[in-house]
Here is the input.
Amino acid sequence: MKGATILCLKEFVSSKYGLDVWNRCVSRAGLPRNIGIVPREIIKDEDFMKIVTELSKEISMKELEILENFGYFWVINCLSGRQIYYDVVGIADNLRKYLEIYQAIGQPGGYRRPPRGRPSKVNVAFISKDHVLVSLDYDVDVSYIYVGILRALADLYKESDVTIERSGYNRVKIIFG
Here is the structure.
Protein backbone atom coordinates (compact mmCIF):
# COMPACT_ATOMS: atom_id res chain seq x y z
CA MET A 1 0.00 0.00 0.00
CA LYS A 2 1.05 3.56 -0.43
CA GLY A 3 1.78 5.99 2.36
CA ALA A 4 -1.31 7.95 1.28
CA THR A 5 -3.44 5.03 2.50
CA ILE A 6 -1.78 5.14 5.92
CA LEU A 7 -2.20 8.93 6.02
CA CYS A 8 -5.90 8.51 5.35
CA LEU A 9 -6.11 5.80 8.01
CA LYS A 10 -4.47 8.24 10.43
CA GLU A 11 -7.03 10.90 9.47
CA PHE A 12 -9.85 8.35 9.93
CA VAL A 13 -8.65 7.24 13.38
CA SER A 14 -7.77 10.77 14.55
CA SER A 15 -11.08 12.29 13.46
CA LYS A 16 -13.20 9.54 15.02
CA TYR A 17 -11.19 8.50 18.10
CA GLY A 18 -8.46 11.10 18.58
CA LEU A 19 -4.78 11.45 17.77
CA ASP A 20 -3.80 9.78 21.05
CA VAL A 21 -5.57 6.59 19.94
CA TRP A 22 -3.67 6.69 16.63
CA ASN A 23 -0.34 7.15 18.40
CA ARG A 24 -1.04 4.26 20.80
CA CYS A 25 -2.06 1.94 17.96
CA VAL A 26 1.05 2.72 15.91
CA SER A 27 3.24 2.29 18.97
CA ARG A 28 1.63 -1.03 19.99
CA ALA A 29 1.98 -2.24 16.39
CA GLY A 30 5.74 -1.67 16.72
CA LEU A 31 5.82 0.76 13.81
CA PRO A 32 7.63 4.09 13.49
CA ARG A 33 5.58 7.09 14.55
CA ASN A 34 6.10 8.76 11.16
CA ILE A 35 4.86 5.77 9.11
CA GLY A 36 3.31 6.84 5.83
CA ILE A 37 4.40 10.45 6.13
CA VAL A 38 5.47 10.34 2.48
CA PRO A 39 2.30 9.69 0.42
CA ARG A 40 4.12 7.69 -2.29
CA GLU A 41 6.10 5.62 0.20
CA ILE A 42 5.32 1.90 -0.11
CA ILE A 43 4.00 0.45 3.16
CA LYS A 44 3.72 -3.29 3.76
CA ASP A 45 0.12 -4.48 3.72
CA GLU A 46 0.88 -6.31 6.99
CA ASP A 47 1.89 -3.05 8.69
CA PHE A 48 -1.41 -1.47 7.71
CA MET A 49 -3.23 -4.45 9.24
CA LYS A 50 -1.12 -4.28 12.43
CA ILE A 51 -2.52 -0.79 13.02
CA VAL A 52 -6.08 -1.97 12.30
CA THR A 53 -5.61 -4.89 14.72
CA GLU A 54 -4.43 -2.55 17.47
CA LEU A 55 -7.31 -0.16 16.75
CA SER A 56 -9.72 -3.08 17.01
CA LYS A 57 -8.42 -3.83 20.50
CA GLU A 58 -8.39 -0.15 21.49
CA ILE A 59 -12.00 0.62 20.54
CA SER A 60 -13.51 -2.88 20.90
CA MET A 61 -14.72 -3.10 17.31
CA LYS A 62 -14.25 -5.96 14.85
CA GLU A 63 -11.49 -5.43 12.30
CA LEU A 64 -13.89 -6.04 9.42
CA GLU A 65 -16.13 -3.21 10.65
CA ILE A 66 -13.15 -0.89 10.97
CA LEU A 67 -12.00 -1.76 7.45
CA GLU A 68 -15.43 -1.21 5.92
CA ASN A 69 -15.88 2.10 7.77
CA PHE A 70 -12.40 3.14 6.66
CA GLY A 71 -13.19 2.32 3.02
CA TYR A 72 -16.28 4.50 3.15
CA PHE A 73 -14.34 7.30 4.91
CA TRP A 74 -11.56 7.02 2.31
CA VAL A 75 -13.89 7.80 -0.59
CA ILE A 76 -15.70 10.65 1.14
CA ASN A 77 -12.70 12.27 2.85
CA CYS A 78 -9.45 11.19 1.17
CA LEU A 79 -10.02 9.89 -2.34
CA SER A 80 -11.55 13.00 -3.87
CA GLY A 81 -8.16 14.69 -4.19
CA ARG A 82 -6.59 11.81 -6.09
CA GLN A 83 -6.33 11.80 -9.87
CA ILE A 84 -8.13 8.48 -10.27
CA TYR A 85 -11.14 10.07 -8.58
CA TYR A 86 -11.31 12.80 -11.19
CA ASP A 87 -10.48 10.45 -14.04
CA VAL A 88 -13.18 7.94 -13.19
CA VAL A 89 -15.72 9.25 -10.67
CA GLY A 90 -15.76 12.66 -12.31
CA ILE A 91 -16.89 11.31 -15.69
CA ALA A 92 -19.03 8.36 -14.68
CA ASP A 93 -22.66 9.06 -13.86
CA ASN A 94 -23.40 5.79 -12.08
CA LEU A 95 -21.62 2.94 -10.30
CA ARG A 96 -21.87 0.56 -13.27
CA LYS A 97 -20.15 3.12 -15.55
CA TYR A 98 -17.51 3.72 -12.88
CA LEU A 99 -16.76 -0.02 -12.79
CA GLU A 100 -16.67 -0.25 -16.61
CA ILE A 101 -14.12 2.57 -16.76
CA TYR A 102 -12.15 1.14 -13.86
CA GLN A 103 -12.11 -2.25 -15.62
CA ALA A 104 -10.47 -0.61 -18.65
CA ILE A 105 -7.69 1.04 -16.60
CA GLY A 106 -4.43 -0.69 -17.28
CA GLN A 107 -5.87 -3.00 -19.90
CA PRO A 108 -4.09 -2.99 -23.29
CA GLY A 109 -5.55 -0.10 -25.23
CA GLY A 110 -7.55 0.82 -22.15
CA TYR A 111 -8.58 4.11 -20.64
CA ARG A 112 -5.23 4.80 -18.95
CA ARG A 113 -2.19 2.85 -17.89
CA PRO A 114 -1.38 2.08 -14.29
CA PRO A 115 1.32 4.37 -12.84
CA ARG A 116 4.88 3.40 -13.80
CA GLY A 117 3.64 0.36 -15.69
CA ARG A 118 2.70 -1.54 -12.54
CA PRO A 119 -0.27 -3.85 -12.94
CA SER A 120 -3.39 -2.84 -11.10
CA LYS A 121 -4.07 -4.56 -7.79
CA VAL A 122 -7.79 -4.33 -8.55
CA ASN A 123 -9.41 -6.46 -11.23
CA VAL A 124 -13.02 -5.72 -12.21
CA ALA A 125 -14.84 -8.48 -14.10
CA PHE A 126 -18.39 -8.27 -15.43
CA ILE A 127 -19.85 -11.75 -14.96
CA SER A 128 -23.09 -10.49 -16.50
CA LYS A 129 -24.76 -7.13 -17.07
CA ASP A 130 -25.89 -7.02 -13.44
CA HIS A 131 -23.18 -9.04 -11.68
CA VAL A 132 -19.65 -7.71 -11.13
CA LEU A 133 -16.79 -9.38 -9.32
CA VAL A 134 -13.87 -7.34 -7.98
CA SER A 135 -10.71 -9.33 -7.24
CA LEU A 136 -7.91 -7.74 -5.22
CA ASP A 137 -4.22 -8.59 -5.37
CA TYR A 138 -2.92 -7.67 -1.90
CA ASP A 139 -0.88 -9.62 0.63
CA VAL A 140 -3.68 -9.29 3.18
CA ASP A 141 -7.47 -9.43 2.81
CA VAL A 142 -8.65 -5.91 2.03
CA SER A 143 -12.06 -6.92 0.69
CA TYR A 144 -13.86 -5.16 3.54
CA ILE A 145 -12.16 -1.87 2.63
CA TYR A 146 -13.44 -2.27 -0.92
CA VAL A 147 -16.96 -3.04 0.32
CA GLY A 148 -16.85 0.32 2.10
CA ILE A 149 -15.37 2.07 -0.93
CA LEU A 150 -18.01 0.69 -3.28
CA ARG A 151 -20.85 1.47 -0.86
CA ALA A 152 -19.62 5.06 -0.60
CA LEU A 153 -19.49 5.32 -4.38
CA ALA A 154 -23.03 3.91 -4.62
CA ASP A 155 -24.14 6.57 -2.14
CA LEU A 156 -22.35 9.30 -4.12
CA TYR A 157 -24.20 8.14 -7.23
CA LYS A 158 -27.43 7.94 -5.20
CA GLU A 159 -27.91 4.29 -6.12
CA SER A 160 -30.03 2.24 -3.76
CA ASP A 161 -30.79 -0.80 -5.91
CA VAL A 162 -27.36 -2.39 -5.59
CA THR A 163 -25.99 -5.09 -3.29
CA ILE A 164 -22.30 -4.95 -2.38
CA GLU A 165 -20.78 -7.69 -0.25
CA ARG A 166 -17.59 -9.58 0.43
CA SER A 167 -17.37 -12.74 -1.64
CA GLY A 168 -14.34 -14.46 -0.13
CA TYR A 169 -10.70 -13.62 0.43
CA ASN A 170 -9.93 -10.39 -1.48
CA ARG A 171 -13.13 -10.60 -3.51
CA VAL A 172 -16.18 -8.33 -3.59
CA LYS A 173 -19.41 -8.99 -5.46
CA ILE A 174 -21.74 -6.28 -6.77
CA ILE A 175 -25.27 -7.10 -7.88
CA PHE A 176 -27.37 -4.45 -9.63
CA GLY A 177 -31.17 -4.63 -9.50
